[in-house]
């Protein structure tokens, strides 16, 4: 008797493991959607940037240069050799370029001390001037936030 073609087939065991590849694909698509939409959600938020709790700047070998921008547009520069010296924008760029060249390979740190009522564009222009002078490390100075009262429980 000839064996039937169906008799020679072995039955395979059922695979009870879950196939997770489609779930990974769905999760990656959701991740991309969230990455694209999240920056759009932050517009229109009313924030008060100057009041923030921040860590102190670590003490280094060199004191940072402090550039103060007043609400009327006046710029003052403080560093080891001078304190609160009024400067114009070109003088600031020239002085910082000279300080950067004297630093002998060490990047100088610049801290911006700006009035709360300054326009965002004025601070950005100041940061562009710092970048033009070759400054790479810039920080913003903040005041201590006002203590908030906790509601009684």
Label this structure with key terms:
about 150 residues, Nucleotidyltransferase, domain 5, 5-stranded mixed beta sheet, elongated
Can you describe what's shown?
The longest helix is centred in the N-terminal third of the chain and has 21 residues, at 21-41. The chain is elongated, with a radius of gyration of 30 Å. A hairpin with a 5-residue loop joins strand 1 (65-69) and strand 2. 31% of the residues lie in helices and 17% in strands. It has a five-stranded mixed β-sheet. It has a domain at 65-140: Nucleotidyltransferase, domain 5 (2-Layer Sandwich). The chain is α/β, with parallel strands linked by helices and 153 residues long.
Overall residue-averaged pLDDT value: 76
Quaternary structure: single chain
**N to C succession of SSEs:** HEEEHEHE
What gross morphology would you assign?
elongated
User: Which runs of at least 5 residues are low in confidence (pLDDT < 50)?
Assistant: 43-49
In short:
31% of the residues lie in helices and 17% in strands.
Give the secondary structure arrangement, pairings included.
Blueprint: H1 21-41, E1 65-69, E2 75-79, E3 82-87, H2 89-102, E4 109-114, H3 120-132, E5 137-140
Parallel strand pairs: 1-4, 4-5
Antiparallel strand pairs: 1-2, 2-3
Helix pairs in contact: 2-3
């Amino acid at each position: 008797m000839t064996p039937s073609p169906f008799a020679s087939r072995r039955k395979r065991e059922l695979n009870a493991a879950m196939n997770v590849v489609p779930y990974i694909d769905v999760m990656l698509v959701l991740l991309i959607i969230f990455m694209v939409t999240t920056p759009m959600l932050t517009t229109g938020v009313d924030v008060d940037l100057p009041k923030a709790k921040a860590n102190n700047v670590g003490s280094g070998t060199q004191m940072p240069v402090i550039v103060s921008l007043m609400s009327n547009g006046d710029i003052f520069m403080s560093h080891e050799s001078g304190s609160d010296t009024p400067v114009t924008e070109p003088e600031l760029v020239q002085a910082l370029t000279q300080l950067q060249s004297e630093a002998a390979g060490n990047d100088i740190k610049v801290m911006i001390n700006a009035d709360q009522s300054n326009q965002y564009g004025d601070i950005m222009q100041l940061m562009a001037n710092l970048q033009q002078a070759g400054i790479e490390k810039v920080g913003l100075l903040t005041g201590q936030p006002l203590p908030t009262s906790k509601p009684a429980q």
